[in-house]
Design goal:
Length: 425
């Protein structure tokens, strides 16, 4: 994360993504999260970057972990259009790090006796991280068990030809069987890799597969960002303590925990209120299992309406493009004005908004407020939105006769989203 944050800063994306846009798509319930301006956002990034160093060194660990979680999550809550699964994953893991004693052994806090050194910790401290990894993989695998992914190799059949420039393998990217191979292997990998990582006999071979799979993903789909590297490193949590001891033994001034455990004053880590730990872990597990399944509460095709899509670990499952045309009508005079989206949105924001109904509604409310300030007494906002899903013909996404400014933002189903109609083969 230190490298990722510095990379983001060095490319000037702090200003591009968070400072320059005139409007931000906030998360429902987090409308109070706002960008902090040029100086404020750069200062926030600096604080979060420093926190990554302190966490890595185990220095003021609890404070650093808390600062990182709050700071990084605040940044990600500023705009929905920047949502990525691995950013969500990082927020969750950083939250868990607040509660586990990751500074108990090989850390400056322990070395300088700012915390009591502990060389044995409860299994839940490791298992909760493994559980979070398993949630990512298994739900990603379950999401691939659909007709488009398995029977049509979509959207990989659309994406892979764009990688024909790659040496050695580029000429194969137009072959349908390659897309099917990638699709089926991806589904099987996500569904079963955790099972093999948990078994001591298969763990080394499984980790080799992890590395190969994610390196290939990074090569073929560079737009996925840091996610492959995050998963490669985090998967090491499945290895036992002996493996990590051997890795650490190559570092200077390292003392084996076996020798340190011979000391009479060494105590295992134990929480003061174990019953509350059980309650907290149970609640966390339930939430992590329930959130990806909330799409079952909504009617229609998930990939079309995207109701319950976010936070469900659906990684690279669809190719969805769209265009949206907005008009603002003065109810009193009947005067109609066309909206130039580029006046209010960045290219990324417009691209993401055009295919997601909740973002379309947020933007419509923003336009109503904006035109009301311009003197339109009773602004009504209408939109014509056309979307193409997984190479199908584009079709209307929403009812263009509905005044979006009058529609409430809600958790429930948006009835003005038109049903998906499958194109004829």
């Amino acid at each position: 994360m230190l490298g990722s944050l510095i990379r983001f800063w060095s490319k000037g994306w702090i200003d591009t993504v968070y400072v320059k846009p005139a409007f931000h798509f906030t998360y429902f319930g987090f409308e109070w999260v706002r960008p902090l301006g040029h100086m404020g956002m750069h200062l926030l990034y600096a604080v979060v970057i420093i926190a990554t160093l302190f966490i890595s060194l185990g220095l003021f660990y609890r404070i650093a972990a808390t600062v990182f979680f709050l700071g990084f999550t605040y940044i990600e809550l500023i705009d929905v259009t920047t949502y990525l699964n691995h950013y969500y994953f990082i927020s969750l893991v950083s939250f868990l790090l607040i509660w586990v004693p990751a500074n108990a052994h090989f850390a400056l806090d322990a070395r300088w006796k700012w915390t009591v050194p502990r060389f044995i910790v409860p299994l839940w401290c490791i298992s909760i991280i493994r559980f979070q990894m398993a949630v990512v993989y298994v739900f990603a695998g379950l999401a691939k068990l659909n007709e488009d992914w398995l029977l049509k190799a979509l959207p990989l059949r659309i994406w892979l030809p764009a990688r024909s420039y790659l040496p050695l393998v580029g000429s194969y990217m137009y072959q349908p069987w390659v897309a099917y191979l990638f699709s089926w292997f991806g589904a099987l990998y996500d569904l079963f890799i955790v099972l093999f990582l948990l078994q001591k006999k298969t763990r080394p071979f499984a980790y080799v597969v992890v590395v190969v799979f994610h390196v290939a993903t990074a090569i073929f789909f560079p737009g996925i960002g840091m996610f492959p590297y995050v998963m490669i490193l985090c998967s090491l949590v499945f290895f036992d303590a002996g493996f990590h001891e051997r890795l650490l033994s190559y570092l200077p001034f390292y003392q084996s925990s076996e020798l340190q455990n011979q000391s009479n004053d060494v105590l295992p880590y134990a929480h003061k209120h174990p019953k509350w730990v059980v309650v907290a872990i149970t609640c966390y597990v339930i939430v992590q299992l329930a959130v990806p399944l909330r799409f079952l509460l909504y009617p229609g095709r998930l990939f079309w309406s995207e109701e319950g899509y976010r936070f469900s670990w659906r990684v690279m499952l669809m190719e969805k493009t769209g265009v949206a045309y907005f008009t603002v009508k003065d109810k009193a005079s009947g005067h109609i004005q066309e909206v130039n989206n580029a006046d209010y949105l960045t290219e990324l924001q417009e691209k993401m908004m055009c295919t997601q109904p909740d973002l379309i509604l947020k933007y419509a409310h923003f336009l109503a407020d904006t035109y009301h300030k311009k003197g339109v007494a009773q602004p009504q906002v209408f939109a014509q939105v056309y979307v193409a899903l997984n190479g199908q013909h584009s079709q209307p996404l929403i009812d263009s006769s509905v005044n979006l400014a009058a529609q409430p933002l809600q958790w429930g189903h948006y009835t003005w989203v038109l049903p998906y109609k499958k194109s004829a083969p």
